[in-house]
Amino acid sequence: MCKKMNESLAFLRDKYGIPAGEIVAGTEGFELALPDGKRIPLLPWRVERRFVELKKIIDGKTLEDVSTFRFAAFAPGSDPVKAAARELDLAVFLAGSPIERIFAVRNGNAACNVLARFANGMSASVECGSKLPAGAAPMDRHEIIARRGVASDRAVDTQVPQSSIYEWTDAGCRTFTDTDTELFGLPDEQIPVVRAAFAVLKAPALADEWRKAAGCMKKYAAAVTDSDAGNKAIEL
């Protein structure tokens, strides 16, 4: 997997003349390895196109007075706590504000529900689950609610990603979605990883920001566990 992503990263590096770096697998996800030996955690969701567009909608004031983020993410065999930490980091990225308080309840390793309050007064509701059938495609939805206006990364009333092209043949249904013209042919889940590595190489200042965010994600995961165990809100 890393070989194909690094080939795509090399293409972007050569095209735009940016410094060297390589995508490697880390303990908590993919990382960017620099020639000097330093490693930077990659946060692919922060460069994924649908979330970048949501960020623009918020920052551009298309939505007036954002109040709530309502997120849901389900994947077979996933870790709901780690998934919740990832979704909370996405909410922090969109809100542009740190989390002050977390309250969470869990159903073992099957599901996790989290309520979070941000320093700027916004709030987030996150639901994560791991019990989709084996082999099922992950399902998620990210909705933003404001005093005036609502935005979502999915079509209204669905959590199922829509494809650009559907092909029905005797062999069954095949779907195709072109999400990045420069990385055409790379699997959809790998494109944000390559773009994340490219973003850090292009803007080195992101390195410290993402290291800090990765550290905060560990705090979110710990807070979710502690909140569920103690049946109380955790201040961060």
Describe the structure.
The structure is a single chain. By secondary structure, the chain is α+β, with helices and mostly antiparallel strands. The chain has a single domain (about 1-235), classed as Dihydrodipicolinate Reductase, domain 2 (2-Layer Sandwich). Helix content is about 35%, strand content about 30%. The protein contains five helices and twelve strands. The strands form three sheets. A seven-stranded mixed β-sheet has the order 9-8-4-7-6-5-12. Strand 5 and strand 6 form a beta hairpin. Helix 1 crosses helix 4. The radius of gyration is 18 Å and the shape is globular. The mean pLDDT is about 90.
**Which residue ranges are poorly predicted, with pLDDT under 50 across at least 5 consecutive positions?**
none
- The CATH H-level superfamily is Dihydrodipicolinate Reductase, domain 2
Q: How large a portion of the residues is in β-strands, by DSSP E?
A: 25-35%
The string of secondary-structure elements, in order, is HEEEHEHEEEEEEEHHE
Mean pLDDT: 92
Query: From the alpha-carbon coordinates, what is the Rg to the nearest angstrom?
Result: 18 Å
* Percent in helix: 25-40%
How many individual domains? 1
CATH architecture: 2-Layer Sandwich
Major sheet details: 7 strands, mixed
The order of strands across the largest sheet is 9-8-4-7-6-5-12
In one word, what is the shape? globular
Distance between the termini: 36 Å
- Based on secondary structure, the structural category is alpha+beta
